[in-house]
Amino acid sequence: MYKRQDLEVARAEANSDCPPQRPGCVEPAGGKEAALLSAAVSLQAHVGGTVSYTRLSLTRRRPTLPETYGDANSHIPNPDLRSESSRKLEVGLSLPNAKGALFVAADRDVIFLQKAGPQAVQATNLESGSRVGGLISTDIPLGEFVLLGGSYHWLNARLRRPNERETTVPRSPKHSIKGGASCVSDSVPIDAGKSVNLTSDVEALW
Fold this sequence. Notes:
The protein contains one helix and ten strands; from the N terminus they run ββαββββββββ. The chain is mainly beta. Strands 1, 2, 3, 4, 5, 6, 7, 8, 9 and 10 form a ten-stranded mixed beta sheet that branches. The relative contact order is 0.19.
């Protein structure tokens, strides 16, 4: 049987809140601090193998230690940083081999890294921001041991700085495509019974 968790590249929920290459984005794997407060209300409908849902989520996160107090590398301290807050409404559909979702979010006091010198950056609060996006993913079995997967993520992220016109988020790609393949076999024992698991993937951002 296929182990869906072995295919890491086909995740529809892959960072709708944290677009690729966005400075200051909170991800546990990146060593950032977790949100100070997170709450969500979700409604789901199950029909056969299909699940549809509507989710309203509220999050708030404090600045990290380097963002507030700086570090020995390149962060300049900013003790006046405020916590970042976000409200997001998301609707989605999950099928046996595919997922899709649309979301809209409103952000306040967005924490963003700004250049403060040739080799220095400083975290600052921007007045407000908004995100509208969608994502789809699928994983398709080929034969008994091969699983192909892919995902597409579209994001329109905009920021409004104080006394300035609304602009797009720098270094935040609008389109992200991921694809990959996973080969899993529990029937080929190696090293005292461990299974074979080979995964490859490719990603494009623009």
